[in-house]
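Record 1 of the preview.
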Amino acid sequence: MRTLPDILEEYEFLEGDERYGLLIELGRSLEPMPDALKTDATLVRGCSAAVWVYPASQEGDRLHFLADSNAAITKGIVALVIAAVQDKPAAEVAAMDVMGALAPFDLKNQLSSNRTQGVPNMIALVKEHAGRIAASA
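->
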């Protein structure tokens, strides 16, 4: 998976529909999430599209997530969130300002509000999981 700074570098050179295209491409590049993991327990509440996030594994204290959405643009936004936290130490993710890391993408002004309304809930789930892992380490 590409890093958030790498994605931002490309994103800043694009405009309008090209940015949508990049988000769709990012969504397609997400590690596949098996359908069996797309359950009510992994569903992110408050999203206009269905979004699932599953803490797949951890190596030491590094977090690894699987995620998916049934909507292409939303899946790209999910990929941005995952890129911000993927394979990082749990304590780092728990303390991270993920919304701040995503701020340069200006998603609220680039996309309709119904596409971004579930982002805080997804971030809260990821940070809550990171906090639990960090506390037990």
